[in-house]
Amino acid sequence: MNYRIEVPQEPERGICVGCEAHEAWEEFQPGYRTVAFYCDGCGFEVEISLRDTHEWRDLGEMC
Ligand SMILES: [Zn+2]
User: Fold this and answer.
1) d(CA 26, ligand 1 centre) in Å
2) Domain regions of the chain by residue span
3) How far away, in angstroms, is 21 Cα from ligand 1 center?
């Protein structure tokens, strides 16, 4: 699995969560506490819990 989380600089914009292997991307509007991304190709769903937007980038680096 090689998931990626894209966090834009502007906090008003949503985040993108995607699977690089299958080039499946989903965009989420800002303000969610939890977002769930499902990749058809992998058959996995990843759930991302957010405390605040600053931690999103750290999460992405952990993947
Ligand atoms: Zn996939």
Assistant:
1) 12
2) 3-62
3) 5
